[in-house]
Amino acid sequence: MTPLPAGTDDAWLRLTKAGTNYTGEYSLDGATWLPVGETNVVANPMAAPDFGLFAFGAQQGGDEVGFEY
After folding, report:
1. Residue 8 and residue 19 in contact, taking contact as beta carbons nearer than 8 Å
2. Fewest CB atoms less than 10 Å from the CB: which of 20, 26, 33, 60?
3. CA distances from 13 to 25, 39, 50, 60 (A)
4. Poorest-confidence range of 24-28, 32-36, 37-41, 60-64?
5. pTM to 2 decimal places
6. 3-class state of residue 55 by DSSP
7. Which residues pair with 41 in a beta bridge?
8. How confident is the model over 42-59, as pLDDT tens digits?
9. What pLDDT score was predicted for residue 46?
10. Torsion sign across C-alpha atoms 13, 52, 36, 42
């Protein structure tokens, strides 16, 4: 898990595919990308995998999580 700095309102996530390998990255400004976790490349030989995003954690003050695309 990669903790975000205090006061962070937005974070970008991206998943990149190269062959059968997937790489996860995040950005705090939409321009500079950093690896997610210690193992950044995951192999998946499935022909047509489905992926999705989800959020979980303590919901204090009715916080919302939005996903654009």
Report:
1. no
2. 60
3. 6, 16, 16, 23
4. 60-64
5. 0.64
6. coil
7. 23
8. 788 887 777 777 666 665
9. 81
10. negative
